[in-house]
Write a structure and sequence with these properties.
- With about 80 residues, the chain is α+β, with helices and mostly antiparallel strands.
- Helices cover about 35% and strands about 35% of the residues.
- It is built from two helices and five strands, in the order βββββαα.
- It has a five-stranded antiparallel sheet, with helices on one face.
- It is globular and about 35 Å long.
Amino acid sequence: MPTIWRNGPYRFFFYASDRPEPMHVHVEGGGGSAKFWLRPVHLRSSRGLARHELSRLEGIVVARHEQFVRAWNEYFEG
């Protein structure tokens, strides 16, 4: 489970088994989790996070989009 980035209680990561799915990032922390597709950026699923937290997390995914895409490509495409 490579961790891509941390922000406060939130950890942004993907699972080694995620390769068959479209490019995405998981987020855990604050008592919940979420999954965001990266192309285009949008919320795929969430559990236990308030709407304002999801909005904040989506803003982080947008702001760090290039970093997350680069991390995905480096991990899965070597």
